[in-house]
Amino acid sequence: MCGGCVGTEYPERGTTCLEGGSFLLNFVGCAQCGRRDFVLVSNRAEGLHGGEEIVTYDHLCKNCHHLIARHEYTFSVVDDYQEYTMLCLLCGRAEDSISILPDDPRQMTPLF
């Protein structure tokens, strides 16, 4: 992975977890060939590991196929919540948790 290709390494992305694609605003250009073009997604793999869905892939320079970053996205269901995480030098790090119930108990206000 190449810190010279990105503006900020592992930027904080809040709850934005990407299962695919690239965060192009953080791509400053390829450190190997010097060009700033689209980023290819390569070596995509999906699988289940211990009840967790894991998606991994590589971000490559479109011109010289230099490895910019490795992307990892995970999804799991814990209790009554869908849990999402993302970790990538280019796209950043993020976590999200969404209730699978019609009304999220964390968002409920007490009646008294």
From TrEMBL:
Keywords linked to the UniProt accession: Activator, Developmental protein, Metal-binding, Transcription, Transcription regulation, Zinc
Segments forming a coiled coil: none
* A family per Pfam: Churchill
| InterPro entries noted in UniProt | Churchill_sf, Transcrpt_activator_Churchill
Q: Name one GO biological process term.
A: fibroblast growth factor receptor signaling pathway
Q: In which domain of life is the source organism classified?
A: Eukaryota
Q: Which molecular function GO terms apply here?
A: zinc ion binding
Regions that span the bilayer: none
Recorded family membership? Belongs to the Churchill family.
Q: What is this protein called?
A: Protein Churchill
Q: What is the lineage of its organism?
A: Eukaryota, Metazoa, Chordata, Craniata, Vertebrata
